[in-house]
Amino acid sequence: MTLFRHPEDRIPVLLFACVFALDVTVFLTATSWWFPVLWFGLGIIPKGWICSWNHHHQHLTMFRHAIPNRLLEIIFAFQTGVTSQAWFLHHVVGHHRNYLDQTKDESRWKRDDGTTMGELEYSLKTMLTAYPRSFQVGRKHHPKALRLFVAMAALQVVLLAGLFWVNPYNALFVFLLPMAASLFVTVWATFFHHVDLNTSVHAEASYNILHRGYNLMTGNLGYHTAHHSRHGLHWSKLPELHAQLARDIPAHLYRQPGIPFVWLGSEAKLVLSEHEVEALAASNAKAKAPASAPASGEELAA
Predict the structure, then answer these.
(1) Where do the structural domains in the chain lie, given as residue ranges?
(2) Where are the transmembrane segments (predicted)?
(3) The pLDDT value given to residue 58
């Protein structure tokens, strides 16, 4: 019986496990005050990328069985600050259902008066409300996911408390602060996905990033219109779906990636030429349509 749902997930999961093994090694062996601090700084950007893969996993779980999925989610939580089912409740069930309505969106970029938040305001507010909003979505719509969310969050707290009991200084810089920083970086990055796009049309509601390095590190998260079009589709199939949608996506709904891919003009808006749009559409003209995506709650049992 195959362990993974999709073979493309094997190498990413191996890399996540290796990063976690390095974290544990630093936690257990670092004796100088500066090395855990250095490790924390070096890990901010890579763990920010891992947040994208945690996001993909909670849209479509990487393993076929519950136990390896829960173990992977413990690793993800230590790396990203997002615990098991938190993305599912806040993002999959919440944001994806409500992102066209800024009065309901769990990641809303509008204030109550209808004006647009600034980057820092959005990031702090969304970060601080992430877990309460996840709980609210679960209580209203998904009690099964809520029970798992609460149980796994409690387990995560117990594990983190155990790490602090063993070595509080290393636990702070190797685990707790990276969890908080990764959650903030993740939320900050999502500001640029939909900000100022007032529309009821899905093809016009997301910005896209075509940068090859960015999509390699984030599992094709740059194909954001495609992701919102079929959010249960595996990350490896998003470029193909984007090609099918290319002519429907307005040419101005593209951006540069952020740091470290672009240092000057990070997140700047781009406008594709008609030739570039046609090249995107033609790049997959002969490919078959992607397999059907599962419903938003279909993978919950695993």
Answers:
(1) 1-196, 198-291
(2) 12-31, 145-166, 172-192
(3) 95
